[in-house]
Here is the input.
Amino acid sequence: MQEEQDLVRRARQGDKEAFAALYESHYGRIYRYVVVKIGRRVEAEDMTQQVFVKAYKSIASYQMQGAPFSAWLFRIAHNQIVDYIRRVSKRPTILLDESLPIPGTSDPQGEVELKLNFEQVVEATRQLTKAQREVVSLRFAGEMSISEVAATMGKSEGAIKALQHSAIRALRKTLKAGEHNGKI
Amino acid sequence: MAKYNRFDNILDACLEDLLTGKGTVEQCLQKYPGQAEALEPLLRTALSVRRTVEIKPTPEMIAHGRYHLQLKMAETGKPKHGRFLSWQPRWAVAVMAVLLVFLMGSGAVLAANGSMPGNPLYPVKIATENLRVKLSGSEVEKAALLTTYADRRVKELLNVLASDKPDPEKVEAIAARYNDHLVKASAITRDEQTVAGKALMMTATAETTPSTELAAPAAVPAITATPKVSQGGTKAPAAEAFTQDREAAPQLAATRAEDDGEKDKLRKLLIYYGDLHPQELEKLLESDKVPEKAKPAIRRMIQDAKSASKQAQKDLESRRESK
Here is the structure.
């Protein structure tokens, strides 16, 4: 954490290598968050790049005493996604990307869990409320802790935990309805 | 309400353990037997969702994104800390220009030109290169020089790896300079239309343009098997694929270029090197000359060359469309 603070401080002073190190450590989480929210791989890749470009350009505005750096990055990503959805909503529908991999199916524990694919999950998250969806995306794709999610969304940890609970319950209901093999 | 809060806390504690790999569903259920029935389906759902969205970006994707970012950083022009020339008054730059002209003819600088990493004259060579870039007459000339120097770095790498005990730190330093040259050259040759926001238009055509569609620039020499002699007078086997006049290519590309074609020629040169350098570097990686510690730096160079080429292709396509 201290190391990240140091990188952020250097990046704010114009140290490009420090910013590149921040990019390396956060790219995966931001990419997963974006891909889950928009459901398309190529667009998510481009958008993730744009998130870091925006972050670099406006890093001087980041308050080191405020929310964690990751929370700030996820907020930029969120705003990018909102812009994107506004743009594509003028088109007929957002198609889900069928080229995405389906990870985690080889685990024996998967036998007693829901057998899901990426499209199902993205579709199911679309049935959630905006806040629930945000919590699921940040927590499961962005790999954030509850406190980080709370800082990013500007809510209390208790409120985020309640949203998390209701979101998982709603996801289960939707996904179970879509399950035909009765695994759970 | 308190009952719900308590359950939310337990669910979150279990999730935290699951998501961070510190615990399993079974362990959690054992820990909270009173809530096990309600917890189990929620935890299994959460775990399934998490596993499904655990998409890992490929190393190529990360490297390409980093290159794109560096390109934007070069364009943005943030405060350049520690840059020698950035805080110099104009008269000092002029004095340095005169000095450079004077020095260019001096024996030390001429001797330094052929020096390799580790040689006492090598810092002189790098300093001269930096000064030439800084004092170049136009942006296109600057990009041409930077592209030349990127190619030089590859040759230096081959030389370093031809020694008995290649030094990974030297390889790292070469890779860092190579990246710097390509990013700066790409930033100059970049088409404005592909810059702001166009990436978000997500045009599949620009992404999939095959490099084979674009021929190497006419000025680029053919690759022959002319042996290259290393500094110590011994042959550097890995360097055999280079021609002596290879460095003439970018200068020719820049000087012969007419008006709007100048940048296009440099773009083609970046595409040309974007094919050539990875081929050479991958050959190196396949050989037993490269120490394990030096391999990541060489892989970065490969990715940087490809990213520069990809960007140049995009720019060329964009220009064709605009025509």
